[in-house]
Specification:
The protein is an alpha/beta fold and 406 residues long. 28% of the residues lie in helices and 20% in strands. The chain has a five-stranded parallel beta sheet, sandwiched between helices. It is elongated and about 80 Å long. The N terminus is likely disordered.
């Protein structure tokens, strides 16, 4: 190989599905490379006296075959590709020579110059595989790979589809408010949208990044103010999708956690409109976390319950079993409960929850305006009023509120 070292590597994508791949060594290199080989459908044979626990687990589940021994001459027979990564230089050299003799493309973790193939830094984004080689600088390869993949995912790197793009609606959970907490897939779909119908509780900062041609429709359901009826939202989704537009319904949190996402999905299904649902990070766990509160903690809370507080406990529309909730010893997380916080606290106390139970109210969680107000169950309603707490806010009830990092 020395006389060819000045030439650039020829990039190619190997289709290894059902084809024999031999991996020598079960250490860190195998731990990193095996998942991609399995994902490619390769028939993987691992030869190594020992292996990392995660590699051993892959053998236990049948994803790979494992022969617990050292390399022997002839192990690369019928192989299409070999990965050599043992800690024995002599065995590596012998296996590399066998690969050369059998014309098996071979990667060596200990001596790239002696290998006949190099492993690129790879990444994937919605059907696109990015592979980067920079010769002897793997860190630069990884950095370039990361930059390209991130650009494809968040839409900052333009990669237009040249085939007809399927129209329809994506119900995207935008997370609790911080724009960095939307999922990668959600952000990519947002970048590809023609129309965005956005909630007030969605990550509003992301709307400023949209190109000028994108139509943004305000579907804000602002407490104590104007709102866009759910039927109007459904009709807007259907109308724009039928016009051939790529529509994103950007919702706060997760579409299915008190987000009426299923109602919108049902309306779209009835209209024959294809729909993709992208889960989001729910404020029920992310907002307490951002305020330093674990919803569960060993020895303190082994369960947490999330309830809606948008109707009072004594309202006939409430389906929450507040008496059962009061008897639980774990954490209670209340969403949309600011207005009814006093009634909720009184009901829980009446059914047996201690008035001295710690409570925290986190307003505008994960955003620059986040603030935390602490109280007890007995003082919750009064504290909310005195502190002027306004929605959106998450109420956390339970001993986890008093847990601190120290």
């Amino acid at each position: 190989m020395a006389e060819h070292a000045e030439h650039a590597a020829y990039p190619v994508g190997l289709r290894l599905s059902g084809r024999r791949v031999v991996v020598l060594g079960g250490g860190q290199v195998a731990q990193r490379r095996l998942p991609s080989l399995v994902a490619a459908g390769a028939d993987v044979l691992l030869i190594s006296p020992s292996a990392k626990p995660s590699v051993e687990a892959m053998a236990d589940t049948g994803e790979i075959r494992w022969e617990r021994r050292r390399y022997e001459s002839g192990d690369l027979a019928d192989a299409w590709y070999a990965l050599i990564s043992t800690d024995d230089p002599e065995a590596n050299a012998a296996a590399s020579q066998e690969a050369e003799d059998r014309r098996v493309w071979c990667v060596r973790s200990d001596d790239a110059e002696a290998a006949t193939a190099w492993t690129p830094a790879t990444g994937r984004s919605e059907g696109v595989t990015v592979a980067v080689l920079t010769g002897r600088d793997p860190r630069r390869s990884a950095a370039v790979r990361d930059a390209i993949v991130e650009g494809l995912r968040d839409g900052t790197l333009a990669a237009p589809h040249h085939r007809a793009r399927a129209t329809g609606v994506a119900l995207v959970g935008g997370g609790p408010g911080d724009p960095d907490l939307i999922t990668v897939r959600g952000r990519r779909l947002l970048a590809e949208a023609d129309v965005v119908i956005a909630d007030r509780l969605g990550p509003r900062d992301l709307l400023a990044e949209l190109p000028p041609h994108v139509e943004v429709i305000d579907a804000a359901k602002i407490p104590y103010g104007r709102f866009m009826a759910q039927e109007a939202i459904n009709n807007a989704l259907i109308e724009h999708a039928r016009a051939g537009k790529a529509v994103v319904r950007l919702k706060g949190g997760d579409p299915y956690v008190f987000g009426r996402g299923m109602e919108e999905l049902q309306a779209l299904a009835e209209a024959g409109i294809p729909c993709t649902v992208v889960p989001g990070i729910s404020s029920s766990i992310s907002v307490p976390s951002a305020a330093g509160i674990p919803v569960t903690h060993r020895g303190v809370a082994q369960e947490f319950t999330v309830v809606s507080g948008h109707v009072a406990p004594d309202d006939e529309r409430s389906t929450v079993d507040w008496s059962a909730l009061a008897r639980l010893r774990g954490t209670v997380v209340v969403l949309m409960g600011v207005e009814n916080s006093g009634a909720i606290a009184a009901t829980l106390i009446a059914h047996g929850r201690g008035a001295d139970t710690p409570v925290a109210v986190v307003q505008e969680g994960t955003t620059a305006a986040q603030r935390r107000v602490d109280a007890t169950l007995g003082t919750l309603g009064e504290t909310v009023r005195a502190e002027g707490v306004r929605p959106p806010a998450v109420i956390v009830i339970g001993d986890v509120v008093a847990v601190n990092p120290a």
